[in-house]
## 1
Amino acid sequence: MKSNLFIKYFELIDKRASVLDYGSGDGPYKNMLKAYFKEYTSADYQVTNQHHSIRPDIFIDDNQQVNVDDQTFTCVVISEVLEHIYKPHNALNEIKRVLVPGGYVIGTVPFFMWEHEKPYDFHRYTYFGLKRMFKDNGFEIIKLDYVGDTIGVSAYCFSKVFSVFIKPFRKIKPLHFVLKLI
Ligand SMILES: C[S@@+](CC[C@H](N)C(=O)[O-])C[C@H]1O[C@@H](n2cnc3c(N)ncnc32)[C@H](O)[C@@H]1O
């Protein structure tokens, strides 16, 4: 859970804003986002959402689109989702469409993570891959940085070698980002 990380960046955003939780899954951030923002909308890809416990307010279609008007949201949260989107540029384009000018995107991606949500697991991003992709898609990068520490990385490698899957150490230095629509 990256609640504390997200809350730090919410200070950039007007509390009266509306937020889209893009790829909401089991909705781990739903309560936190509802508490902070005036309006909360969850969206998830219909095909993969059936394996999750919560249905979203709206579905994301095969072209990564959602049925909402242009410039509806002030913030989009996209947590551990980009790796599941075969054509991430389509998703970034749609996020741009539904964001107000100057709106924010806050998200995370894993780096060293076993395949999950199979077969809908397509990418692992590097720092430089994300940087170029966000810039190419017209976002200003407010923050792009790693999450986690060396101990976590070491523990993960250790657990892999010995096939001991210690849950808290599974994710290795995931990246997080904060973008502003130019
Ligand atoms: C690892 S879960 C993350 C869920 C939640 N955001 C979180 O942080 O716990 C990945 C999510 O991506 C969604 N997903 C998979 N393919 C997608 C796609 N093409 N477009 C949007 N979301 C997708 C899944 O339905 C799932 O909710």
## 2
Amino acid sequence: MLDADVAIVGAGAAGLSLAHRLSHGAPGTRRLSVLLVEAPPGPLRPPRRTWCFWERGRGRYDAAVTATWQRLRVHTPGGRAVEDDIAPLRYKMIRSDDFEGLIAHDLAQSEQVRRIEATAETLEGVPGGAQVLVRTADGRPLTVRARWVFDSRPLGSLPAARTTLLQHFHGWFVRADRPVFDLGTVDLMDFRTPQPSRGLSFGYVLPTGDRQALVEYTEFSPEVLSAQGYDAALRHYTEDVLGLTGLEVVSTETGVIPMTDAPFARQTAPSVFRIGAAGGATRPSTGYTFAAVQRQTRAVAGALAAGRRPLP
Ligand SMILES: Cc1cc2nc3c(=O)[nH]c(=O)nc-3n(C[C@H](O)[C@H](O)[C@H](O)COP(=O)(O)OP(=O)(O)OC[C@H]3O[C@@H](n4cnc5c(N)ncnc54)[C@H](O)[C@@H]3O)c2cc1C
């Protein structure tokens, strides 16, 4: 049996953000013991991803950020460019590997946070808290008991909703043989892409150097495309819309984010809360989640420090 004040299930954006916020405690408050349960390497671990988010000034993950921008551009379907400076905000890009590296470094300095690699199998409320039955990579069952449990495991299915669209996208990390990207400006939404019969599509360009960028094709629509469909859309966008040829595709990224007006339960037992996308942190109109995860985990850490019920 493992005991802690707080157990966090899942070590993705939300689980790691919460563990990081709890790792040193607030001055003058009791230090909480935290147990972070992360799935062993395997199918439950999400692939590497790139998170973009808006932030004012300096942020707690700046040391791991790949790039930041202050100018954004949108292209209308007719080709008109609208560009502006977003100060005092910045648009920031962080790769999940770099985020995980930064958090791992900081958690290693903390005596409060323990990490175990195990798969959570069941989670239930018990008197005075909750218990999680987990299984380690070598098949050993373990019981984790905590006063509070924060569960960030993805939901198996979405709650019922009036509206559900998929934000689905495929991106190429590209390298050009000459300087072709404007490092100072993000093309956030470029609607010069052919529009699907239901929903909408756009391209975007996140330059990380004058020869390097992440170029993505995105749809908000009911159905995902085939791998060939995304490649054709990206080829059309880079070559015919942006006029870029001779790009080398260094790596790729694919994602599907449900955009739904479904209500998400934030509390599933008196001591059990959901955080992250599973707890409704995804903004239904845009799919952005990372910034909301920061607000959610900041609220939880603040409530725990103040001795309040830590509803995300
Ligand atoms: C490719 C991609 C790009 C995205 N880009 C952006 C972006 O630019 N900006 C933005 O705001 N949002 C973005 N999102 C949306 C959102 O930010 C991410 O999905 C984010 O990872 C959600 O964080 P999370 O902690 O809720 O879930 P995850 O990061 O998926 O973490 C869930 C964790 O639970 C673990 N887990 C699962 N089952 C178990 C189990 N049984 N036991 C123990 N652990 C378990 C998993 O291993 C994982 O670590 C993107 C999503 C995708 C897929």
